[in-house]
Amino acid sequence: MFQKILCPTDLQERSHLALEKAVQLAHQFNSEITLLNVHPEFMNEEEREMLRVSVEKMKKKYSQTAVKAREKMQEIIHELHAETVTLHYLLRGGKPDATILKVAEEMNADLIVMASDGRNNIGDFVAGTITEHVMNHSVCPVLAVPVPEKS
Predict the structure, then answer these.
(1) How far is CA 72 from the centre of its chain?
(2) Whole-angstrom Cα distance, residue 28 to residue 132?
(3) What pLDDT is stored for residue 122 in this prediction?
(4) What single-letter DSSP state applies at residue 8?
(5) pLDDT of residue 5
(6) Residue-level pLDDT at 32
(7) Which portions of the chain are predicted below pLDDT 70?
(8) Residue 39 to residue 44: CA distance in whole angstroms
(9) Are 113 and 6 a contacting pair, CB within 8 Å?
(10) In the chain, where the domains are located
(11) Could you please report the per-residue DSSP string of 65-92?
C-alpha cells in the first residue's frame, strides 16, 4: 500500500513522533522511508552572487551542516531501532513546505508522515502552518502526527 514514505524532519524532538509512526508503517507495509531535512538558509548560486557571499565559505558551511544533519538523522534512526528499514537521507534548501511537496512529487511518494504541533505563533494563524500547507497541496495522502502539549 505505502511503498515510499516521505518523512520530513526538522531534527527537533517533536519530529521523532512522526518518524516513529513512519517506521511502524514501513515495518507493516515493507516500505522505504526518505528522511528529509530542509534548510531555508541554504542559498542557491544566484542568491550567493547577489549577496556577494564567498562561495567557498558557504560550500564549506553547507557541507558541515549536511554532515551534522545526516549524523543526527542516523542517531534518531538508531534510537528507534529502525536499522532494518530501507532509509534514504535527503538534505535540501528552500522553503520547507514547497520543498516537501517538490520532493514528494519527485520521489513519487505514497505517503507523507510529518509532525504537527499546531499553531503556536501569529504567523501560523495568518499564513498557516507548514503541515497545513503540505496537507492542502499534496498529491499523496499526508499523515499529520500531533505533538502532545507539554504540561
Answers:
(1) 13
(2) 26
(3) 53
(4) E
(5) 97
(6) 96
(7) 41-62, 118-128, 150-151
(8) 12
(9) yes
(10) 4-146
(11) HHHHHHHHHHHHHHHTT-TTSEEEEEEE
Burial degree of 23 (CB within 10 A; 0-12, 13-18, 19+): buried
The CATH superfamily label for domain 4-146 reads: HUPs (3.40.50.620)
3 state SS for 27-69:
HHHCCEEEEEEEECCCCCHHHHHHHCCCHHHHHHHHHHHHHHH
Amino acid sitting at position 98: A
For residue 120, the one-letter residue type is N
The predicted structure's pLDDT at residue 108? 97
Q: Are 145 and 15 a contacting pair, CB within 8 Å? A: no
Cα–Cα distance measured from residue 114 to residue 116, given in angstroms and rounded to the nearest whole number: 7
**Burial code of 98-123, b = ≥16 C-beta within 10 A, e = fewer?**
ebbbebbeebebbbbbbbbbeeeeee
Please name the residues in contact with 102: beta carbons below 8 A apart, sequence gap of 6 or more.
Answer: 94
pLDDT value at position 148?
A: 79
C-alpha cell at 123: 504567523
| Contact residues for 128 (Cβ-Cβ < 8 A; gap 6+) | 136
pLDDT at residue number 102: 97
